[in-house]
């Protein structure tokens, strides 16, 4: 058997186009474009690539992008001041502070300072709490993208057994809560889980968010299961200048022999994460302007 390959690029393009359509309507109704402020502290090359991609996608959706680049030695108080200014700025609907932050800055303090109603990354404790008790807020973009791909692939998720491998605050935990609210029977597996292959073998839905290259093997997968691979791991030559290649947390070759459907890496979860950020920024502006939009966004 060969699994269907879930095309995250196509799904992301579709979502971004639908958001752009809604943005155009919001602009003509309210006379302004939604705005996303992205803050980058320091020069981490991977973060710089993400920030550029986010800015480009924001502009392509017809929204305003405000980029703030701060030096690596920025004191915590200066970053908190910038967050306060962005919180108060009516042109800014979404605020994203790119992680990781340099060691002199407490990321939790910064995340907590962002106005929860502009927290399009969904990392503020208020939004984590809203998700936990089923209130409207902002859901972190990567888990939201995973949920959207699962719904598109499987339709109703009700009653399915789901195993989420990884319990981070940005992926594993929020995704487990989203699957629970879609009526899955959810297991969260992690580094202390005993006999992980046996736990994974019970699942109709497997989400791997671990950060270990090709850890999940084909013989862990229940035949026909839907596999979402969140992992992004660079493997290959370690010599300076050599690029290597990107792989996920799932051994794609063996898993796609058994699974019903599977996301590739790259081209799976990654593009949907950015599309969901654009979506959340539009939703923030729509809430502020009391603008009604299609429910399937
Ligand atoms: P994290 O390091 O915060 O969490 C990893 C989790 O994996 C932990 O909860 C840990 O308990 C679990 N774990 C570690 N070793 C394990 C093992 N041997 N068996 C079972 N569980 C184990 O990572 P994260 O931020 O959640 O990210 C996970 C992966 O997803 C990384 O590769 C990251 O690069 C990737 N990621 C991708 C996107 C995207 O847009 N595609 C977004 C965020 C993260």
Number of domains: 2
Work out the helix count: 10
Mean pLDDT: 97
- Count of distinct strands: 11
CATH architecture of the largest domain: 3-Layer(aba) Sandwich
The spatial strand order of the largest sheet comes to 1-11-8-7-5-6
CATH superfamily of the largest domain: NAD(P)-binding Rossmann-like Domain
Bound molecules: nicotinamide-adenine-dinucleotide
Could you give a quick summary of the protein structure above?
With 297 residues, the chain is α/β, with parallel strands linked by helices.
How would you describe the overall organization of this protein?
By secondary structure, the protein is an alpha/beta fold. The chain has two domains: 31-115, Leucine Dehydrogenase, chain A, domain 1 (Rossmann fold); 141-270, 3-Layer(aba) Sandwich (Rossmann fold), CATH 3.40.50. 42% of the residues lie in helices and 15% in strands. It has helices spanning 8-30, 45-60, 76-88, 107-113, 125-133, 141-154, 172-181, 196-201, 252-258, 269-289; strands at 4-5, 35-41, 64-70, 94-97, 161-165, 185-189, 205-208, 226-229, 233-235, 245-247, 261-262. The strands form three sheets. The protein has a six-stranded parallel beta sheet with strand order 1-11-8-7-5-6, sandwiched between helices. The protein has a three-stranded parallel beta sheet with strand order 3-2-4, with helices on both faces. It has a two-stranded antiparallel ribbon with strand order 9-10. Helix 6 packs across helix 10 (269-289). The longest helix is centred in the first third of the chain and has 23 residues, at 8-30. It binds nicotinamide-adenine-dinucleotide (NAD). Nicotinamide-adenine-dinucleotide is lined by residues 142, 165-168, 170-172, 189-191, 193, 196, 209-212, 230-233, 269-270, 273. Residues 142, 165-168, 170-172, 189-191, 193, 196, 209-212, 230-233, 269-270, 273 line the site of nicotinamide-adenine-dinucleotide.
């Amino acid at each position: 058997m060969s699994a269907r390959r879930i095309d995250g690029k196509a799904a992301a393009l579709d979502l971004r186009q639908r958001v752009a359509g809604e943005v155009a309507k919001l602009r003509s109704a309210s006379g302004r474009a939604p705005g996303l402020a992205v803050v980058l502290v320091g020069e981490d090359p991977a973060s710089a690539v993400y920030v550029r991609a986010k800015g480009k996608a924001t502009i392509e959706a017809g929204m305003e992008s405000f980029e703030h680049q701060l030096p690596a030695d920025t004191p915590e108080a200066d970053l908190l001041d910038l967050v306060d200014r962005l919180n108060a700025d009516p042109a800014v609907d979404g605020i994203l502070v790119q992680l990781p932050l340099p060691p002199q800055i407490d990321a939790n303090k910064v995340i907590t300072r962002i106005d929860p109603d502009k927290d399009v990354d969904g990392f503020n404790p208020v939004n984590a709490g809203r998700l936990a008790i089923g209130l409207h807020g902002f859901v972190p973009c990567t888990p939201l993208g995973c949920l959207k791909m699962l719904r598109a692939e499987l339709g109703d998720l009700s009653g399915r057994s789901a195993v989420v491998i990884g319990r981070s605050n940005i992926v594993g935990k929020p995704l487990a809560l989203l699957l629970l609210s879609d009526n899955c029977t959810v297991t969260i597996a992690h580094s202390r889980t005993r006999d992980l292959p046996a736990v994974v073998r019970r699942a109709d839905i497997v989400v791997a968010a671990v950060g270990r290259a090709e850890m999940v093997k084909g013989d862990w997968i229940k035949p026909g299961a839907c596999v979402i691979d969140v992992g992004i791991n660079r493997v290959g030559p370690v010599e300076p200048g050599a690029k290597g290649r990107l792989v996920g947390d799932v051994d794609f070759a063996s898993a796609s022999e058994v699974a019903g459907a599977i996301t590739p890496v790259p081209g799976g979860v990654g593009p949907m994460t950015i599309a969901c950020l654009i979506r959340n920024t539009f939703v923030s502006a729509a809430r502020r302007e009391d603008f009604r939009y299609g429910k399937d966004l």
